[in-house]
Amino acid sequence: MSQLPLRAQLASALGRTAATLSRATGRGDGSVIGGRVGLLLEPDLLRKLAHEKKLALVSATNGKTTTTRLIASALQELGEVATNAFGANMPAGHVSALSSNKAAPYGVLEVDEKYLPEVLDTTEAGVVVLMNLSRDQMDRAAEIWLLAQKWRRALAGRPAHVIANCDDPLVTWGASTAARVTWVAGGQRWHEDSWCCPECGGPLDRAEGIVNADWACRECTFSRPEPNWILDGEDAIDPYGHRWRLDLQLPGTANRSNAVVALATAAAFGLEPQRALPRLREVKSVAGRYTTVERDGRVMKLLLAKNPAGWLEAFDVTRPDRPIVLSVNAQGPDGRDTSWLWDVDYRILAGRHVYVTGERRLDLALRLDVAGVGFILVDDFSQAVSALPPGDIDVIANYTAFQSIRTEFGRAV
Amino acid sequence: MQSSLRIVWIYPDLLSTYGDQGNVLVLEQRARRRGIPVEVVHVRSSDPVPEQGDIYLIGGGEDRPQILGAERLRRDGGLHRAIQRGASLLAVCAGYQIMGSVFGGEEGQPVPGIGLLDISSGRGERRSVGELAAEVDPSLGLPTLTGFENHMGVTRLGPGVTPLSRTLVGTGNGDGTEGCFAGKIIGTYLHGPALARNPALADLLLRWAAGPLPAMDDSWYERLRNERLGAVLKP
Q1: What CATH number does domain A6-281 carry, 3.40.50.300, 3.40.1190.10, 3.90.1150.200, 3.40.190.150?
Q2: A236-257: pLDDT as tens digits
Q3: B80 among known catalytic residues
């Protein structure tokens, strides 16, 4: 079954053992450690594992894990799919994912934005999916204009088929050196990082109040390409003008956008919407995101939001009549800098029962105070839960805060 | 004083990368809680900077937007005229460097600034990222500065400015000082919502514009300050 050289087979097998140990000891999902062990033994392992797989790479600031899951679900219609389902999106995670299912003819890999050029170079993936770019963990992440420029260089002169969101000007710019692009009008709600033309710095003009409006630079020729696929309310419109009601279980506009991208990607693999869409509708939660957990009659919907654009999307799927618990940390994976809190417009929470916790709860408390939003400060998540009456509760947390809540519920998926 | 306090936020479309809006919101809140009516003006880089503001704010950003911002401010001239009229200015990070004679561009090349502060900046060897704490120049009568810095800049202060503070933790200008001031212009590397962590600095800007201020409930500000200062100044 496997065409891998012996050394690569051994590296891959030892990596899987490490992953199993990580899960068995409750230390993690096992998706990073396994790959690290494998890469240590065979540095060229990723290239070897990717060889002969039909591969899609998925990158964006937000929605990578969910869209990866949607695409992987759709492609299962065609055959087995290897994928990094738990968001381990750097080369170690990719090795782990591809090792765990070497026989699969298809691979769908979520890729960290910074690593995309390197991973594309190593894997020579045939399909690259690019959704959005916005400010995110600026103390360690690359500046996004620079990031888009690196995408341009990485895609230029390659045969890869790119699926890109043309409603995000920076993504459009990043994708437009590719030989072949399918443009998806997936919408863009967060505009704060795209007031200026990525090509020349001039002002971008766009119609306000429409999520997938046309945009164009006032000073140069850079403008929104004609979309091939369109998200229109609850429907996807395909390149032939056929309308598909999405009817997802995943909530919110952002997920409808992710689904249209997944349909366009499936089509790039030759899978038509009538076969892909039922698979997308089966997805209920993604590595704990959007999942519902219960404790003592409190039914909590868990939402992950890591940056201002992500919070905007999370607010979209909360319900104003429900109490809401917000938890913010500033560990390494969250970014040690909490200044992004000031880019989130929290006024939408005014009048709701808001509980604030997490390691950086005082940063969030002041932020809400300045926004005029009333709240109750609690020491930890459990205290918030027991302070609330039984019923439905929304929970929004950033990365490590989310993982610690998820761990309280047995790493809920 | 005119009917309402005018806070002008310069170029949020270019220079607003690290929660810079926080400074606008904190000034607005602290003025309103004192009963001072406030008007906030957001000036995009394609529009002229109005001259009739009381407090001007400019924030941080990436290299390319910083260069564009400097070019447009120089061409526009509105900020210079406002400063001549006696307005105050808080310039943060990339915006701070723009106020000097020169700063470092994408490849470290010198790019002309707009010359409102007697400083010159260049690119350092490594990025300074982390918490910063600093003792403020005694003439300003402010408590310890606290905040977060994230920059590669090194800034040399000329005789026309006074260091804003001396660093206890962090890099700041790179010579043991952090930020500077001259007249009613304050520059700092404390990025994003610097005023949220330093409400006394916000009040200094408000006093310059609106005169003496009544006290207000600062408890959330103080709790956050104490926690952050406690975290970085541990004995």
Answers
A1: 3.40.1190.10
A2: 999 999 999 999 999 999 999 9
A3: no
